[in-house]
Fold:
Amino acid sequence: MKNRNGLLLLGALLASASLVACSSSMNTKGKGIAQLMNDNQERVFYRVVDFVEDEMPGKDERIYDIYITKVGKLTRYKIEYNGTSDSKILMDEVVGKSINEVRKLAEERAKETSEIDKVKAKVTTDSSGNNTIEEEIADVGNYKSLTNGQIRDKYYSGYIEGNVVYLLVTEVSKGDVINFDKADGKIVEEK
Structure:
């Protein structure tokens, strides 16, 4: 009887570990952000101000926008820091939180929300036409380079915005990086 109970406990632990592994950080290899935003999996993206100006996500970066996406539908929570501590959100506050916890925090502190029914992007390629060198995600931003970094035990990857130092990042699995999207004629078109 003890063996049976031990096996049941072990099975329950393995099942719960599998569910934890199904966070928004899974299945990012080989995909760009527009493709990830159009996946069937709900995901969270953060547009942060890079105050340190090191072009890497960090725990003290202030979140400007939180985007929650699934199947191309995007909900934008605009978090504008107005000088009071109750309105700002730092990356450190969202590291390790579930999508529902981030959504609740965003709903509490958002100055405005908006929705997009289908996320689309346009890319510019190099002279060979094979490599994306710039990506514009409609109503999100124009990005010219890539970034990745670690905050505590979580890994983030994404894009660096053109002139102003904003980063668009999402949680990824250790060792994963996000590249620019490639034109597919559906979600991502060439400029």
